[in-house]
Design goal:
730 residues; alpha+beta; seven-stranded mixed β-sheet
């Protein structure tokens, strides 16, 4: 029976690292499926426990030089920051070694060389390769042992080529020893710089996420022997009594044993209106307690809980998500083996080939050609093309309230064919508001609202808040003296106002009070078909008006849908609401394809089916129930006011509530990808010209190194100099 292992990873720098893990695990007997996420730094592995043990899988990943963290612990942001600091320290040490080496090389070119220069250069080179860059050497050796060719291997081949050429220079004066050694030093330096930049991009995105989430509680207040105690949520067990105060998130699945309150389950179920919870009612972890205190007996913990089931769906979505082959991935997949092959052929040609053609091997040109090919072919600039474009685009996006978290967020936008929208909190405001006031039988709209709001101000029902806010917005004066007030929980209100009996509540409640609303059934039915909750207002047992409360559509949604359609992108609605409500909302905003009454797991399945049909899907949502779909989508987009799980599952987080930010994110993503292509073209311009020239053996190692530096400089300039101008658009 297949089992799954979730491994938290550290030390990933780029897509080469992901590919190395894929290849290594794929060759391990018993591995059936591997999913590796660079942006989320984790791997989900499906394996046969009769053939391979989890510790073997973990040890294999560690042997490649990557960090494996405890899968039962959420990786803290502090750990990620510490890893960045370690890489920064490594970069500083590399600069400390490279700077005196550069000074010595300049002095030698100026004719100021001393007899001790070669020995200092050799010492600096050894310090760089076997000291500062030892971790890279270990990763290269581990990859080579498994037949994996990656950027670490190519870097070490270039560095050792330079070291070899430098050592030969001690015995042959015609070999520019210092230049060979300098090439080895600066290849290693740029490799460390490239790794630091990639890690910096991910870490800063995670730190921004931390700021959004740091106020979220991670503890629960339990009641044992009549004493309240605050403990980590992970320590709560079945049968514990958890106290939940008004305004707090419900941390567990359970059953109410004491108290009564309205609970907002919209982020969990997608339903916008809060639900009354009394003794015996079930509550779901992740929902929000709105008013009264609740005492909840925990009924499900661990893998049985709703949140754990969602987490498992997210993991599966991540594993089944089509692996995105980035532009640079496609190029480097053939580039690294190609460079190594060309370097090897150059050496063979100038040794065996030269011996066959000219009668003797040319070791000098063979060494120059081999090292120059490895140096000029080192893909530092190519590897930096994507992260630099991400930094640039991400910075511009952040200024506009958009947090771009991953490379997929940049590359995939250009290919998106479908935007899938959740309803509550995404298309709608996520809060009930008065949408219609319909006075009846000659009464005025102001009268209807006045009587209703005068009673509702004494209630804590969520609909009461909506009616009161409506009255406040239109400055309707309320009746102060209310007598004989009575609230029937979940049904309605009865009171005396201005010596008149007023009844406000559901139509079913009004019917029990012998108030006839049947004459207006056509109006009521039309409102309900629009997914609205209808409240009746009666005076002296006569219906004087209807108030419809619903979740209001955001004002910029229709414009956003239109802008997507103008770009050739289809919009679909995926919601847990009824078909009638979904049809009405979709009609308002211009969405033609609808999936209604969907469960959390169904949303990700719908997206997966669309992907299997060749579609590229972006999912937009903010609730716990949206998280698996956000992970499954080619791009997942959430809001900063969404749940922790939704935010963590998303590639893009919109810091503003306006949905039109999607269009800005789309344009920034497309233009950032264009910038990536420009960077790659610049990098390959140097590699494409330099590598063939290097095979001649006439390219001096220092010129190869200068070309490499220039290629990186060109990529840096293309990425950032445009921002110095007045126009900061991508």
């Amino acid at each position: 029976m297949t089992q799954q292992l979730l491994v938290k990873l550290g030390g990933l720098q780029c897509s080469f690292c992901v590919d190395s893990i894929y290849k290594a695990l794929d060759r391990l007997d018993g591995i059936e499926k591997v999913g590796v996420s660079l942006s989320h730094e984790e791997s989900l592995i499906q394996y046969d426990p009769t053939k391979v043990r989890p510790e073997q899988i973990v040890n294999l990943i560690r042997s490649l030089g990557y960090v494996v963290r405890d899968p039962n612990k959420v990786r803290t942001f502090e750990e990620q920051e510490m890893e960045l600091q370690e890489h920064k320290k490594q970069l500083y040490l590399a600069l400390l070694v490279a700077f005196p080496a550069l000074v010595l090389m300049i002095m030698r070119w100026a004719g100021m060389a001393q007899i001790w220069f070669p020995y200092v250069m050799l010492a600096l080179t050894m310090m760089m390769i076997f000291g500062v860059g030892l971790s890279i050497l270990k990763m290269a050796v581990a990859s080579l042992r498994r037949g994996i060719l990656n950027q670490h291997v190519l870097m070490e081949l270039g560095a050792f080529g330079g070291l070899t050429g430098g050592i030969i220079g001690f015995f042959r004066p015609d070999f520019p020893m210092a230049d060979f050694l300098g090439a080895a030093i600066f290849i290693t330096l740029y490799h460390i710089l490239s790794g630091y930049i990639s890690l910096y991009v991910r870490t800063k995105s995670s730190q921004a996420i931390k700021k959004l989430m740091e106020l979220r509680p991670e503890t629960a207040i339990i009641v044992r022997n009549g004493i309240e105690e605050e403990i980590p949520i992970g320590e709560v067990v079945r049968g514990d009594l958890v106290s939940i105060r008004p305004g707090e998130s419900i941390p567990v699945d359970g059953r109410v044993v004491e108290g009564r309150s309205w609970v907002d389950e919209s982020l969990v179920t997608g339903e916008p209106l809060p639900v009354l919870k009394e003794v015996g009612s079930k509550v779901i972890g992740g929902s929000i307690n709105k008013h009264g205190r609740l005492l909840v007996e925990v009924t499900r913990v661990g893998e049985e809980s709703f949140l754990e089931q969602v987490a498992r769906s997210i993991q599966e979505a991540r594993a089944f998500k089509p692996r995105i082959l980035q532009l640079v991935d496609r190029l480097l997949k053939h580039f690294v083996p190609g460079v190594i092959t060309i370097a090897s052929l150059s050496f063979v040609f100038w040794t065996l080939g030269a011996w066959f053609l000219f009668g003797e091997p040319n070791i000098y040109r063979a060494t120059f050609a081999t090292l120059a090919v490895l140096v000029m072919g080192y893909p530092c600039a190519i590897g930096m093309a994507t992260p630099l474009a991400m930094i640039r685009g991400g910075g511009i996006a952040a200024q506009r309230g958009i947090l771009m978290r991953s490379g997929e967020a940049f590359q995939n936008f250009k290919d998106i064919t479908i935007f899938a929208f959740d309803k509550t909190g995404t298309i709608t405001m996520g809060k009930p508001r008065v949408s219609d006031v319909i006075p009846l039988d000659g009464n005025s709209e102001e009268e209807v609202i006045c009587f209703a709001a005068s009673l509702e101000k004494h209630s804590q029902h969520p609909i009461s808040s909506a009616i009161l806010q409506f009255a406040k917005n239109f400055q309707i004066e309320l009746i102060d003296e209310i007598e004989d007030f009575e609230e029937i929980p979940g049904y309605g209100l009865v009171a005396e106002a201005n010596n008149e009996q007023i009844v406000v509540g559901s139509l079913e409640f009004l019917q029990k009070k012998d108030i006839d609303a049947s004459r207006h059934n056509d109006i009521i039915l039309a409102l309900r078909k629009q997914g609205k909750t209808v409240v009746g207002v009666a005076r002296h047992l006569e219906l004087i008006g209807l108030i419809a409360v619903s979740d209001i559509v955001k004002p910029d949604v229709k414009k956003t849908i239109y802008e997507l359609k103008r770009r050739g992108i289809q919009s679909i609605l995926i919601t847990g609401d009824s078909q009638e409500t979904a049809n009405y909302i979709a009609g308002l905003v211009g969405i033609e394809k609808i999936y209604a009454k969907t469960l959390p797991g169904d949303k990700s399945k719908i997206i997966r089916e669309l992907q299997e049909q060749g579609e590229k899907v972006a999912m937009i949502g903010d609730g716990i129930n949206d998280a698996p779909a956000l992970m499954q989508g080619d791009i997942g987009i959430s809001f900063s006011h969404g749940t922790d799980i939704a935010i963590e599952s998303a590639d893009i987080v919109l810091l503003r509530k306006e949905l039109h930010s999607l269009i800005e994110a789309y344009e920034i993503g497309k233009k950032s990808y264009r910038k990536t292509k420009e960077n790659v073209a610049l990098a390959f311009a140097f590699n494409g010209i330099g590598v063939p020239l290097a095979t001649t053996g006439l390219v001096h190692p220092i010129f190869a190194m200068i070309a490499m530096v220039l290629s990186v400089t060109a990529v840096l300039s293309n990425s950032f100099l445009a921002r110095l101008g007045k126009n900061s658009s991508p």
